[in-house]
Every structure is written in C-alpha cells, then in structure tokens.
User: Fold these one by one.
Assistant:
Number 1:
Amino acid sequence: MAGMMQEAPMIKITNLEKFYRTEEVETIALNKLSIEIATGEFVAIMGPSGCGKSTLLNILGMLDDPDAGSYVFNDIEVAHFTERKRADLRKHNIGFVFQSFNLIDELTVFENVELPLIYTGVASAERVKRVEEVLDKMQIMHRRNHYPQQLSGGQQQRVAIARAVVNKPKLILADEPTGNLDSSNGNDVMELLTDLNEQGTTIIMVTHSEHDARYSHRIIRLLDGQSVMENIMV
Amino acid sequence: MLKNFIKIAWRNLYKNKTFSLIHILGLTMGITVCLMIFLYITNEFSVDSFHKQGKNIYRVMRGFDPAKPRTAYLSGPYAPALLNDYPQDIKMAVRVRPQNNLVSFGEKAFNEQKVYATDPGFFKLFSFPLIKGDATTALENPNSVVLTETTAKKYFGSTENAMGKVIQIDKTLQLKVTGIAKDVPSNSHLDFDIVFPIANYTKDAGFNVWINNGLFVYLLLNEHSTQSALESHFTQFMDKYMSKDMQRFGAKFDLKLTPLKGIYFEDASSFDNVRHGDKTVVFIFISIAVLIMLIACINFMNLSTIRAVERSKEVGMRKVMGALRNHLIIQFIGESLLLALISCAISVGLLLMLMPWYNQLLGYKLSVAWNEPPIYLFLVGVILIVGLLAGSYPAFFLSAFSPIEALKGKLRLGKGGTLLRQSLVVLQFSISVLLIIGTIVIMNQMHYIKSKSLGYDKAQTVIVSIDNNDIYDHRRQFKDELQNSGVVSSVSLMSGQPGGFFDTHTFTAEGQHDVFRSRTEFADFEYVKTLGLKIIAGRDFSTQFATDTTNAVLLNRTAAKELGYTPQQALGKWIRNNGRDDKPRTIVGVVEDFNFLSLKENMDALVIAPNDDRRVAVIKLKPGNIPAALASIKEIYAKVAPVYPFEYSFLDQQFNTTYKNDIRQQAMLSIFSGLAIFIACLGLFGLASFTAAKRTKEIGVRKVLGSSVTNILLLLSKDMLKPVLLATVIAMPIGYYCMNKWLQNFAYRTTLHWWIFVLAAVLTFLIALFTISFKSLKAALANPVKSLRSE
C-alpha cells in the first residue's frame, strides 16, 4: 500500500486503541489499529456489528479521542487535542453524513444546511449564497422552506449531504448513509458521494452493504477492532 | 447566531405545547404572585415618602405607662407651647384632629368619617397637592374648607362647581370651599376627605386642657436641629406644663417624637385610627413570594432538563458541526430567558386584570408607579434571575455530553441527576405542605376565636355610635324610647363596646402604695345586664342605691386580683380614678373576666364606673324579627337626631373589624398556598409525563407478561409519590415551628392538633396522586403492541 502514496497521507493512524468500560466489563473496540488514507481516496469500512467501525469513524471525525495510539490528520497529531481544538479542526475540515440523517427537526431545510456556516462564522450574505448553491446542486432547492418531517427519506439524506458539504470540507465521513433508504434512493446517494469524491473530496464510509462498498476505491474490513483484510477496487 | 437561537427556541416552544404551557403557566403564576407582593411591599415601604419635607417631620407621642405604647393623642395647647418654647428647633407645628361630622350642602347630607380639623399650615407641612386653591393660604380663614376631588364631586358634581361654595358642618358651621386636594393616595398614613381650620374649636371647653387627648401634633424641625436635641427638652417641658396633672394622676407623663417615616409601622395597638402597616405581614408576604418563585423555578429546571434530553439529537448535531460548549450554554440559557420574558409579559397583563380584585383583597387601592423605574428593574431582575437560575442547570448539564452519546440519543440522566431532581421535587412539596399547614392553622385559629366563649353575650346586639351632638344631647331620650319600644330587651350607654375603646387610667386604691393602672369602662347601670356579664361577688349597679352613680364601682376578676384581693375580699374596698373622681368609690361588685379586648391581648384589669363618657349605645334586641327591630331603632334615632343618617353595626360583627388583618392574611395564605400546590403539581405532571414516556417499553413488556393495569398504575405512582411523602415528613416539624410562632401573636390560641398535619399530608398526597394518575393511567391503558413497536 505504502508504495502507492505519492505524498503524505491525509490520515495516518498508528496503533490506535479504544476501550469501553462499564462497571464490570472492559470491551476493546479498537485494538492497535493502524490505517493510512490518502487525500482524494474513497474508502469503505466494513465488518460485522461490534467490530469497531463506528468507533473508528468517531475517532476519525474527532468526535471522540483514542485511549492510546496516534492519529495524524494532515500532518497534525490530534490524538490528544482538547475538545475545543478538535471542534475547531472538525468544523473546518470534516463533513458528516449519518444513517438516520440527524437533521434538526425544528429547522427548515435551508436552516439545517446553513447551521455549519453559522458555527464557522461565515457572514450572512455569503451563507445564503453558499446554501442556495449547494441546495441547487442537490436538487432540493424547491424544498428549502420545508421541515425535515415533510421530506422523504431520500430527500432528507440529500439535505444531510448538502449540510455536510456546504463548508467545503476536505473529508466526508459517512456512517451507513443508505441504511435507512430504499435501493433507488440509496443509489442516488451513492452517486452523489461518488461525484463529490471525483471533485476531490476524500470520503470514508462505514457500510454493511457490499453493493455500496463497490462504489469505493478500497475496502477495509474490520474484525474485533483490527483490520483483517483490504480489498482494492479496480 | 442569535437569530438562530431565538428561532429554534421559539419553534421548540411551539412544537412542545404541553411542556411550554406547563413552563409558561407555572412561571407566569409565580411571577404574577411575586409582582403582586412586590407592589404590596413597595407600597408599604413607600408610605409617607412623598412628603417633600418628610425627613424633618415628626409626630409627638405622649405616654404615661411604661408598660404600654405611647399614644399619639394630645390636647390643644401642646403645639403652640412647643413652638413658643423651642423656636430654635421647631419651624412649624400643626395640629390634626380627626373627627366625623355631618356635612351638608343643600339637600345633600352625609356623616363624613374622614374629616380633619387642622392648623392652617397643614398643606404647607404635608405635600398633599391642591388641584385648585393655594396651599399656603387655603386654610388661613377659619371659615374655609378644602375638599378632596372625590368629595367635591360627591357634593357638587365637579371640582369647578365646588370652589367658592359654602358647606355646612354639623348644621352650625358655614365653610367656604377654598381648595380642592388630590385624593389621598393609599401610601399615606393620614387619610382625609375634608380639611378645615381647627380655629373653629380652639375656644371649646376642654380644648386647652393639657391632660385631654384628641388630636395629633406634627412638628417640622429646623434643618440644623435633630430629634434628640428637641427630645432632650421634653422632661423640662412636661414639668413646666403638666406637673399639676402628673401629681394628681400619680404618674409621669413623657413626650417622644416619631419620625414621619416611622409612623406607619408603629405598634398598631397605639390605637390612633390612622393607617398602620404590620411588619409581620410584610415578612410573611416576602417569604411566600420567595417560596412560590422557588417552586416555579424548580419546575422550570426539572422540566427543561428532561426536555433537553429529548433534544439530545439536536445537541449532538450542533456539537458535530462545531458548536462549543459555551454556544450551547448560551443557547439554553437564551431559551429560558425567552420563556421568562414571555411569562413576564403575560404576568403584567394578568396583573392589570387582577388589580381590582387584588385591591379588594388588600382592602385599599395600590398605587402602581408604572412611570418609575423600580417596577421595571424588578421585572428585568426577575427575567434575569429566573432565566439564569432555571436555565443554567439544564444548560450545563446538556452541554457536557459527548456528541456521540448525544447523537445516539443515549443521554441518560445519571443517578446524580435523578437525585438532584428528586430533591428539588421534595423541596417543592415541602414548601407546599408548609403553606397548607399554615393555611389550616390560621383557619383553625380564626374558627377558635370566632367560636370561643368571650364571657359576654354578643348575639342580637346592635351598636349605635353616639358620635354627634344631637344624639349625644338626647341620649337619655334615645335610651328611654328604646326601652319602651318593646323590641329591645335592654340598652346600655357606655364608653366602649367589647372590642372597642378602653382607655387606661390611673387609680389610687385602698391599701396600695403605687398607682394602680387599669382599663376603664364608663357605663350606665344596664351595662352588666345588656352584655350578659356574670357577677361573681357583690352586686350590680342599682337604682335602688341612689349614690351608685357617684360612689360605686365594679371590677373584673383580674382587676381584683391585681389589687391583691379575691373577688369577695375586694367588696367594700375603695378605689379612686385619679383623673375623673373627686372622692373614692366603693367596690360594690366583681364581674367574671370577659374578653373586652381582642384575643390577641391578655386579659387586662377593668374598672367599670358610671362616670360620664358615653360613646356608644349597645342595644340588646328581644328575640324575634331583627329587621323590624332595626326599623324601630331607626325611627327613634330619626326622632332624636333627625339630620343624621342612622348607622349601626352588630356586636358579633365586631369580630370582622378586630381581626381584619388576620382574616386578610388567612385569605391571602389560602390563595397563595393553593397556587403553590398548583404550580408544584404542574411540575409533577411534567415529571409524570416524562416517566411514563420513558417507561413505555417497560410497561409494554410488563403488560405482555400479564401485568394488570392496576399493577402498572401502582408501579408508576409509587416512585413518583416517594418524594412527596418525604416532603411531608420534612415540612411537618418546620410547619409546627413556624405556626407555633405565629400563634404566639394571640393570647388565646388553639392547640396545634395532630390532625392538622395529617390533613395537610393527606391533602398534598391526594392532589399529587391525582396529578400523577392522569399520565400513569394513560400509559397503563395503552396497547402494549404499540408501545413495543415504537421502540
């Protein structure tokens, strides 16, 4: 793998460990995992339930910190960043797409997409411009004043993707983005992600679906917190 | 970002109507009560603060019994003598004599109760603004009079018509209207409708007798003088003018000054018929306001926290997108500020609607200073305190969650959180139980007082004041005609009916070295019979003993005891009223003690003597038709005092006037404790909804496994009622302590029965149970298939 890399990888994790402790049991979610992901890659992470996929995605997304090991993002070691620093790095670089969309019910389509721009301090006029641009691209402009409950699942996920990309992130993390969709809507979402990747965005996607995984360049298979196999798609 | 906060706050409110309603309703009620109490308290403390020269105004008080409060009633010569003797200290001295007079203009005649005869400087000393006329000269001419706006309208239709018109006082005095004063505000201890110069009375017999009492003296001190400087001269002053009297009475009279601002809260038992406040009531009100606000805030905290858990997805998503902790804290506090703001706005509206009712409850008109800053400061303060206090806990609690947990909706209210919430509920209900106990005890005490045997017969007894010259001059005829009318079983003329006025005098008594101080009743021979008193030794006054009028006296049991005698021993001993008798009187009888004073006061010594001084006629009716009897009395009254309107009251209604403040407190406390319980139950309702919702799955599983609705109801209610039970246990000893203290106000008081506490507990419990079962029942009755599928 390393031979393929022309430049420093976007993500380089080494010996990453994560435990979950309850009062009596300690569960290992990630067991000395090491992975590299290059800029512009589209990577699928697969594996059975409980293998540590989501934990890995959370750490990559800087929503959680590892218990041991190193995580270098764009040449910056972030494993032990404070919450504030992580949040700062996250909001400028990473977009998230979830299985259950996680749109805020009290906000309209437009306002949901606008939210990341508010937190990164983009001026109001610029926000309107960018939100409209991305809604147009996702073909949901006509739904801009609707609330999430008024949309179909496919539309909701498109709004969620619009929200994830509105800040022009370098990396998109998608956690089973088609899990709540029928196959037709699921394919639409996968096409969207592929488009984004072709335009240069790095994408890491957790999925159970072999079908979806075929859209990626590379599949990393996890079992019990370790990488057991990598398939490179051609 | 701010816009976004407000937007989402508003939509949240709108979306969760039940929660928003509970929030806003509870908070609105809390704020409204606080506002009401705030207005009441500011009014109490603003009394007399509008007088421009207020800080240099004092009222002169005279005392002669170190054990009793001084009285404000002085006689005519004090003011001119003080002004004359201490010109370096006193700038102005104004006498104010409160009286009631028959005032007539043409066909219109009223017995006016709020008439002041004053020195001409009255409107110069006090800042009661005149709408018409000149404050400095309005009362210069003895034949002038100033009316308040309302009084002017009453007689003349308008203030314009009133000026220059001549009204008649007691059919004899002609006074020309020279000024119209603004109506006296409720925050003034002085309260008048009509003011005219006291010069019309200065030549009356008795006016210039030093020992007499009947008017107030107000002094305006010079800027450089002080209260203590002037008071240091008073011993000398009294020696100069009253040494003869002091010798005669065997008592030392002294003078003191009360600053104008202090008059209102002066001991109300100084009996001066001006408005007085009660600091205990103020304290009780402040406590209630704080307690109710606390309950409302606790609701707010608990419900917001619970609600916030339901919003965990939003919180998580915001964090994923880069929201920092303080963003979220600001957002949640912002939302509670918004709620507080809305509640405040509704409260102000509600207050405006409730004002007339509230004034009625208080017994006077509150003046709301809408154009002054304090009320706005108070409102802003409430919004900030409530917003911050109630909003901070959920804000800090929620913002601390990790975004992953929040997104998974796995936010769990930890054990610590549950404990805190439970403690808050305990606190709420402790307060409610406390207020209920208070209400029951007060009601119980009032009932006790109402039904306590007072030692005299108050049934079917009418009181008619002898308060004008006509009735006074014809009082004998009035009494005789009543006795002959056939509707009356007996009539007695006296100085004070039970619960009324009983002046303290000094006596010289056989075998006593010290002067003996006792309350006095000056009455005719029908006194004992009319009031149904019991003679326990000797005999009643009797016409068979020609000398009784001048030589006889009756004591009550306490008076005999204080003189060191048993009732039997007292008979035949002599006693002399230092102020009123030339020669000693013989004690011919002793009556059993009866509660001639309010039950707040201990039994006092009473000397009943037939000296002159008749202020009321107490008329015991024959059993039967009361309206017919009243009609007969009115007819007789009209014969002896034709121009005066006939006014009467019943002796058993005296209760309502004597315990006016206590009755008011009882009403207020009932209302406020009802509100407190209601607000607390709103919170409980919210918690119950939350618990029921949270346990939907559990309930579903239990039902599938065969649990009955009753079982589930029991299960849900049990947990919710635990804090209520604990609250009752905590509140009881506190309630016992507080109410025991309150009861100390009464010399005669009911015991704190155990059932009061049980009743309060059961009541709270039932209300709480009712609140909870509403939601629990719904949860228990729900189809389990539905609840399990939704998981």
Number 2:
Amino acid sequence: MSRAFAPKVVTANDLLTGEVVYLTADDRWSPHHHEAELIEDEAEAQLRLLAAEARVAEVVGAYLADARRGPCGPEPVHFREVFRTRGPSNYFHGKQAEGA
Amino acid sequence: MYRYTDFDEAFVRARVAQFREQVERRLSGALTEEEFKPLRLMNGLYLQLHAYMLRVAIPYGTLSSRQMRQLAMIAERWDKGYGHFTTRQNIQFNWPKLRDVPDILEALADVGMHAIQTSGNCVRNVTADHFAGAAADEIADPRPVAELLRQWSTDHPEFQFLPRKFKIAVTGSPNDRAVTRAHDIGLRMVRNAAGEPGFEVLVGGGLGRTPMLGRVIREFLPKADLLPYVEAILATYNLLGRRDNKYKARIKITVHELGLEEIRGLVEAEFERIRGEFSGADQRILAEIEQSFAPPPFVAKPVAGFEAARRDPVFRAWADTNLHPHRRDDHAIVTVSLKAHGATPGDATAAQMRLLADLADAYGYGELRISHEQNVILPHVARADLPALHAALLPAGLATANVGLLSDIIACPGMDYCSLATARSIPVAQEIATRFRDLGLEHEIGPLKIKISGCINACGHHHVGHIGILGLDRAGVETYQITLGGDATETATIGERAGPGFSADELLPALERLIAAYLALREGPEETFLTACRRLGLEPFRAALYPATEAQRDAA
C-alpha cells in the first residue's frame, strides 16, 4: 500500500519583497501560515501548485510544504517551515517583528 | 589601493543599467522567473528563506574607508542596518527589496564596487591573505595578482558557463592565511633557487560534500606566466569538467577522476599553445596595478606609549590576541573581532562600519580588510596609536579580545537565512561563545578554531576547523556532526568525523567534555588543541565525546 498523503500548503516568496507567503483557499497570498489552504488530496495539491506557479507576476519559487491541521488553521510540520513562519533566530526581524 | 579605470567604471555602470532594465522587464511580466533567475544571480541577487539577499564582492577583502561608509549607507537605507561578512571576504545584505537592487548596485558603483560574479558557474571573487601588504612574513603583496585575475576573469567570454563555480585564492606569505589548499586554484608566492619570484600552483582543492586538498600541479611558475597558466587550467577544466552531475562538476573531481598527471599534461600542453598569445600585455597591466598597491606613506612614531598602555590588563589582553606583526616594527596589524560573545559571527551594524571607516582614516591610512574568518582588519596601525584605537573600539562592542580563540568562530548563515541549509549555525556559534565565556576558560584553552556549517556545502569551512561542526537534518531534527583535527593553514588537513551527530541540546555538553579532555591531556599550555590531536590521535577525544553509558560499563 502506498503511504498516506501528508497534507500540504502551497508556499512561495513574494516577488517584490521576498517575504514568505501562503496560498489561501480564496486564491490570495497571505503572509500567515494559519490562513493557508490545507490541501489533503494529492491530485488537488498538484493542481493548486500549478495554479500558483502560473502567477509569475506575484510570487517566486512556489512549492508544496507538509502541514497539519491545528486549532487556528494549518501548522507547519518541518522545522524549516517553522522558521519560515517567523524569521531568523539571531535578530527580531521578518514576520516575528511584524506581529505575524 | 586599486582605483577603477574609466574602463572598469563604464563596464560596471553598463551592467547596472542592464540589470535595472532586467528588473523592469521581470516586474512587467516580460521576463519569467526562469528567465530572470540567471540574470539576477549574475548580479549577486539570491532568493533566500525570508527575503532576497545581495552578495557584494570585496575583491581580495580590501576596502577603503569610503567604501566601508557606503556599505553602511546601503545597510541603513535599503536593508535592516547591518551587513554580514562572509568566508569569501564578501558582504551580504539579507533584506533588500527587488525594486531597490538596481539603486543599491548604482550606489556600489559610486565607490568602485559591484556584485558581479558573486554567484553562478564562473570565477568567483578572488580571495587573498587578509594581511596582504602588511604582514612581516610576506614575500610580496598578493593583491596585484588577485586584481589582475579579477580583471581577466570578469566577463571572460570563455569562462561564463563553467561546469561549476570556480574559486581562486592567492597568498604572498609562507604562512597560509588564505586557505589556498581548499580552493579550485591556490596560488602561493615562492622564490626559486635563483631568487626569482613565482608561484607554487595548487589545483583541485575544495570543501563541500567531497572535501579535498589541492595538489601541486606546478612547483614553480614564473610570475610572468601566471595568466596563461591559469587560463590553461580553466580551459582544460571547462572541457573536461563533468556537466552531467552537479555534485561531481568541480575541478577537484576532474583531478581526482583523471589523475593529477594527466591533468598536468593537458594543462602544460594548453599553456604552451596559448602562452604566445599573451605577448606581455598582461604584464604591462600588472605593472600598472602594482603601482596602485604601493604601501601607504608610513609615519614613524615612538612605541613607548604602547608599552606603557600594556599595563592596563584589558588593553594587554586585546593586544595579546588581536595584534599581528607588521612589516614595520613600529606598526601592527589589528584584527577587529566581529565575534563579540553572543553576537552573530561576521555581522556589523551600520554604526560599527562607520566607526571602523573613521578609525581607518584616523589611524590606519584609510584602509580596511575583511578576513575569511569574518573579522575586520586594520592592516597598518602605528603601535603608538593602538591605545587610542582600542579605547575607541571598546564602547562600540568592537574590542573583543578573542582573535584565534575558541569564540572566534566561523559560522555560515545557516538556516536562519540560507535556503540550502539543513540546520542553523548562528545560534550554535552564539551558545558556544557565551557558554565558554561564562566558564572563563577561553584564554586558558588557547588557540582553537571552531568552524560551523549549516549544510554539507561547507561555507563555514567545518572540514578545516580544529573542531568542525556540520548541521544536518536527521529525520526532521537539527543534528550536529563533529569533525576533529582539521587545519586551514599551510599544514592543511581535512578533519575526521568523530562519530554520530548530537542534537542541539547535546552539542554544548559534548563540546565541554571534549575541551575538558584536551585540558587534561595536553602537555602544557603551549600544546594547542590541534597539536594535541596530532600527538594523541583522535581516540581520547572520541572517548570524551562519546562516554560509555552505565549499561555499557556494566557489560564490560
């Protein structure tokens, strides 16, 4: 049996600022992970990624990242994605400084 | 110092104008990211985890005070008020906005700087001994040669699409401070039996996932033959280097797979073929470049004040660690540590950059250097001025007396910034430095190089650290592997892996056990950690890192 599909979010960096963004269910780019659309179907995830990649004037480097359901919305699974939700650990810069 | 000619100026300005248009076309949708990415990388613009990053070249690590002030201005106006000095003597700005980058490049061009060839499969920023032109042990200043190589390699039509990136380092001193054996080409100035200047040429060194030390391809290359010989190496590599596998594309793999003898034969044949084409033009240009690296007008000053100031223990501690012998007895080379305990290795705020520029003007003939060890050097300071310099550095957090000691750690940006990283490096460096400061052992431990990389690409040079730390992702957990016995100098050695990795929590206690073992095992304070490793082998240090558990002891 193939492994169960791990739920995903579509994430990318904003073209102008480079800030980390997430694709929402209503096709916006949100700076907040918990606003992302949690995609639980593999085929749907691929389609959403293709749609995101087509938005070349808005974002760079879209990809699917593992996520899980949390009380306030999707939460990152891997530590790299956790870091992307807040910013570097040596300075209070990035999302953590913007109150995200 | 080298100043841009009209040609340099026109070239750099043209590149800025081109990039400005490329950015406009990207923003208008005329260029896709796929089309734009190679263009931005050619101009040093990366996309990292949280933002863009602009890597600016500091050729052979040399900066004027004016250039340092401009870097401070850029940090304040377009970034978050600081810059990060790297292990390739470059500076990285971590938060530029895409739209601002052409203006940043324009501001760099205003002071004779650029970000060209700080990325991509081309010849990267040529690095050199950071004490060049100042060190007492130097045969000659390696920077004119480095500048010649920079001019030759910039936009060289044959070498813009090499199989992989290509790094060259030059040293003019027998004491290798430029890690020449870890470069694709390492150049060491030597003299032959007749006393003529030339180079020992090393090829095929590199760190990364397959660390290798460079091997001598030519024991003595006359100085005048440098450019055709380097071009022959590049041309040979350009044809033979593996383009089928990114991880086997560096020249070290070509040398390893084909054997040094075969490569040498091919290079020598190509060298003979192209040598005549150089017709001396390169030597005329080199002679002009050498003029611009004439030593500053040294002012002789009595050293009595320096000797008196040494009675102050704070000054004396700093003078003992952060000064290096200058070619003149009444001067010293000052290393300004960017490794204050708990700070990010290699970071300087705009205010610190400005102060360093001002101090370079006041006490250092307007000249600064960036070392691959991520510190700032004032290469020429009269000993008489050292107490005043130290007093000015102190309140700015720039007088940490730790150069060459445990907390003078090299660390790559790691997963706090870099999209390639597999774990963080900066917090590890911060924790090690603060812990050993609190233990108060640093000066007792003596010379010790800790180098940390956040992934296998080894930007933090962990393979050549006395203690190397490599951050990895093991099943979704940051894990740190330790290597021991590495050496970056003329006695270069690739460190040996100690054993299984440690979690972030386990790492610091493991290092404490390791250092305690060294202190217990050494013959005396004169025996450094590295010397002890060489005398004893790694087993006693492994035993300290991996003590037998109680269960294992019971079973034994």
Number 3:
Amino acid sequence: MSSRTPQYAAARLTQALAEDPRTAELGVRVQLRGDHVYLVGEVASEERRQHLTEVVRELEPELTVHNEVGVVECREPSTAEELD
Amino acid sequence: MIRIAAVGDVHLGEDARGRLRPALEHLPDHADLLLLAGDLTKHGTLAEARVVAEEFAGLPVPVVAVLGNHDHHADVPEQIAALLTDHGIHVLEGESTVLRLDGAAVGVAGVKGFGGGFAGKCGSAFGEPEMKSFVRHTEKVAARLADALHAIDVPVRVALTHYSPVTDTLRGEPLEIYPFLGSYLLAEAIDDAGAALAVHGHAHFGTEHGTTPGGVRVRNVAQPVIRCAYKVYNLHGPDERGDQSASATGGQASPHSTSRA
C-alpha cells in the first residue's frame, strides 16, 4: 500500500534501505523535505553508497535524491587514549 | 600497559575486500591485540565471512571478535564463527579468553548482546510470547557475559559486545531506537564482575565515550563513529599504573577459552 503522507514515505524508505539485499543499511538516515529526500550516514564502499540512491529511486521515482552518505575512513589512528 | 586496538561494524563483503588491510600493516606498532565488536559482515553470509577472515588472518597480534546482528542475518552465525576460528580469530559468544602478552595479561569476555532498552525505559518479560522471548534473550546473554567475565582469572578484564551496555555512547542516535541498540543488563553484568574497559559497536550515529553506572569506561568503536581503521586504548593495569614505558609488542597469546553453554 502506498501513501503520499511524507512520514510514511520516509519510513518506507528507511525500511527498504535496511531490508533490500543491495543495501542492508540500518545506519542511514532518511529525511524527506517536500519532493526532496536526503540520505545521511556512512557506508563501507562507494558501490554501497550508489546502491542507496538506486533503491530510493526505484521506490519513490518522483523524489529528488540527495545522497549525502560518505564512505567510512580506514586510515591508521594517529593517537591512542590512555586509560588508567 | 596493554595496548588494545578495537573496531566494530566494518561490514566487509566482496565489494570491500582489502579495505582495512593496509591500515593493519603497522598494527603491532600501535597495539598488542585487536578487538572486533561485531557486524563484521554486511549480510552474514559465509562468502562475506571469508573476506573478513582473510582481512584479519595472519596478523602479528591476537584478534578477538564477537558477532553482530548483521552476522546473524543469513542464519549461519555458527558457521561464520567456525570459519573465523579456522583463520586464527578468537570468536567469543558467552566465553572468555586470557591473552598473556610479554608478562601483561588481559582477559576478554565477549557476547553479541541484544536490545531491550535501559533502566526504567525498557521492555519486560510480560505479555505476548514474542515480547517475553525478546526480553529473555537479553537476560540470557547478559548472564552469559557476567559468567564469562567472572571466569577470567587475571586482574585486567575487558568486556566485548556488539550491542551497547549504556546510553552514553548512543548520543546522536534517535532516543526512540535506544531499546534496539542495547540493554542496561549488559552494563549490570559488566559492573557485577568488574572490568577495565567495555567495547561495543552497533550505534553508527552514537559517540565514542561513555561510562557504566559502576564506573567502567565504555567505548563505542563502530567504524562510522571512530572514523578510522581502529582506535587504540592504552590500558594501565593495577600493577603497572603510571608505567607508560613498558611495551608488550610481539608477545605470544595463550588463549584459554571457557565455554558457557
């Protein structure tokens, strides 16, 4: 069942990003503002970042997708925390 | 001093193969052991677990892991644990392992943990069977964590979970989903047995630093939180307090796993 109420659309997209095997992302936030959808968070690869846009476009083709998700950094840490 | 490297939620798969390995090349320069706080894979498949195993196999320091909810998604967590174990990774689920590193010893107790919520704002084992099952699962894993911590016979204990024991490290996450991010029962178990450090992942929008009600330091090492390959915590044991010149690099691990059915 489809609904035009923005809250339901945002909820549907959040669920889809979690449950679609292409994405399986529970750590991406979906914000709906008018006809625009904003995706925020971090994923492990550029390919996964692109899958997010793909899944959202399939489900809500009339929305403009702003994919603000980053690819998580993997550099060595420069400092250590002392715990005593 | 024991130098503990930790990271969670690396979510490896075929498309992220080798992503962490370059940063692990100099791991022994920074740390004496590496903790993996669950969600090592994306979908919990054996193919992804193979990528994880290859990423963390053959490191010069011991690697101790718990699985996360993603690692359960394909319903083969036991096979994933066995595969990682075959590659030299200590996978804990209600168990502990003691690592002896150049004279310094540390015991790590690990469970995946589960949700349920936090004191005064949590689910109860009441009503429908599904609800009772949910809450009792958390109670069970928290009890296993307490047992595993108590089984450690060296002074320095570390608790390793995927789900969070406290709300401190969830700051940044929506309040409404806290019950799905952790349980105070994990913190109660940690405080009951005592620990020098508790490490978890799972909360990608959370924050790194927290403390249990009993004063145990908690660190959320979910990779989107720490924004690097791993974080390092230099743990000064009760006998070495203030001695920051000691180095345990290159020590040999002597794991003694204690199964908890």
